[in-house]
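FORM 7B - TANDEM STRUCTURE REPORT

SECTION 1: FIRST PROTEIN
SEQUENCE AND C-ALPHA CELLS:
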Amino acid sequence: MKVRKEITQQMNILGKNGKEFVFLIDFEGNSAHVFSPELTEKILWQANNKSNTDKREAKSSIEKWIANTVSFEKYKHGYDLVQKHIQNGDTYLLNYTQPTKIETNISLEDIFYDSSAKYKVLMKDEFVCFSPETFVKIKNGRISSYPMKGTMDASIENSKERILNDSKELAEHNTIVDLIRNDLSLVAENVTVEKFRYLERINTNKRDLWQVSSKITGDLPKNYTENIGEIVFRMLPAGSISGAPKMKTVEIIKKVEKYHRGFYTGIFGYFDGKDLDSCVLIRYIEKQNGQLVYKSGGGITFMSEAEKEYEELLKKVYVPIAT
C-alpha cells in the first residue's frame, strides 16, 4: 500500500503540473516506477506513435525457438482448482496463466526493436513486452478502455465467424465488458459500450491470430489531470487479466498459479501532460537468472475445456517478428 500511495501522489503532482511521465505498475500493485519519458538508461518504450528511442532496421532472425511449456498434467491440476472455485461460486471468470521456459538466439533488446506491436517495453536485462492490448486511453477528458478477450488461430477455416459465434468466448467477453464498464464508472460518468466485439489480426513468428476486443468510453471530471494517479490505480488490476469478481478472483489466482507474475499483466503508460495512453503488459518475456521465461494464459469459465485452454496458452507463446 505504501508504494501505491507514493506513486499515486507522484503521478497526481506531475499531472497537476502538466508534466510528462511514463509509468510501470506490477500485477499486484506492490512495485511501481515513474520515469521521465526521455530516460533510456533503464527503460525503452513505445506507445503507438510515441517512443523514447528511434526505430532501427530489423536485423534479428529467429533461428532458434524452443518452448519448454508446462506439462498438460501440471496445467490441468491448476485448471481443476479454478473450476472448483467456479462451481463454488467464488469466481465466474478467472485469467489462469503459467510460465514457459524458452530458448532462442535473439536477445530481449532484439525482440523490443524488431517485434511488431502497438506497445513495447524493455526494462533492460529484466523483461520485454510487446503488447497488443490497450488498457485505457484518455483524450480531451474522455477515457476509453479496450478489453481483449478471445483468441483463435487465423488459419482455421471460417475462423472469424467461429470465434465470433463461439458461446464460451461470447460469455467470457460479456463478463469482461461488464467488469470494465463498472471499473470506468468508478472514475467517469456517461459510461457506454461504444464498440462491441471487433476483430484484430495479430502477426506472429508461428501463426496469425484473431483477437476480439471491445471499446468502452466515459467522461472524466474537469480536474482529472491532478488525479491521474488515482484514476489509474482505482481500475487495477486490469479486468481482462484478472477476472470477476475481481478481488476474490485475484486471491484465487495467487493460490492456483503458484508462481510470481511480477510486471506480467501489470500496466505501462505514457502521460503527455494532458492525455494518456497505456497498455496491459501481456505477451511478456522475463529474464530469470539468465533463463528466459514467457508468461501466458487465458480466461477460464464454467464452459471452458482444459485441452482448448491449454492450447490457447501455447498459441500465445510467440514473438511478432516476421520470419
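SECTION 2: SECOND PROTEIN
SEQUENCE AND C-ALPHA CELLS:
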Amino acid sequence: MGRDDLLRSEHTPDAVADRLAEGPGRSHLRDLVYGAIDGTVTTFAVVAGVAGADLGAVVVLVLGVANLVADGFSMAVSNYLGTRSEEQRRARVRREEERHVALVPEGEREEVRQLLADWELDEDLRDRVVDRITAERDRWVDVMLQLEHGFPSEPARPLGAAVATFVAFVVVGSVPLLPFVADQAGLAVSAPFAWSAGLTAAAFVLVGVARGVAVGLPRWRTAVETVAVGGAAAALAYVVGSLLAPLT
C-alpha cells in the first residue's frame, strides 16, 4: 500500500472516529530534548573545563557524575514545578471563566462571537455556532481557555515532564564521560578528551536528527543547529577552564 493509499485509509469515517475516540496524545518531546541537550552540554562543559585546567581523569569523573545526579535532579524538579505552575494557572483561569459565564453570560457569549470572527462565518451561521458552544458550560469554558487564553486542550503532566527530563539528562548526558570511564576501567583509552568531544558531537547530531524526525524538519538542519548550540557552550567552558588553569 502506497503512502497516499495509507493516508486515505486513515481518513475514512470509521478510522477518524476510532482515532478521535482515543483523545489527543501528550508529547514529551520538549522535555526530552531539553534534558538531552542540557545534560550533554553541562556534562561536557565539566569535561572541557577540567581538561582545560588539566586536572586529570578522576576529577572529570567525580565532577561529571555529580553533575549528572545533582543537576539532572535539579532540572527535573524545575521542569516539574514550572509545568505544575502553568497547570495551576490554567486551573485558576478556568475557575475565573466559569465565574464569568455564571455572572455575565451575555458578555461571555459576545467574547465567543468575536473570537470566531476570524473563521469568516456568515452572521447567521456564526450565531448558531455560538449557540451550540454556549449551550453546555464545560464546552463553553473549554473554548474560552483555548481561543481566548491560548491553553492546550489537554492539561499538562508535570510528573511525566520531570521524569522525561531526568532520564534524557542522565542517559544522553553520560556520553561525554564514557571515554574516561573506559580509561579508568583499564582499557587504556588514548586521548580520552578527544574521544569525549567526538562522542559529544555524535550525541548532538543524534539528538538533532531525532528532533528533525519528530517535528518534520530536514534532519541535517536540526542536527547542525544542535551541534552549533552545544559546541558553542562546550568551547566556552574549555576556554574558561584554560584561563583558570594557572590558578590550580
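SECTION 3: OBSERVATIONS ON SECOND PROTEIN
The chain is about 80% helix and 0% strand.
The chain has a mean pLDDT of 84.

SECTION 4: SIGNATURE
Preparer initials: ____
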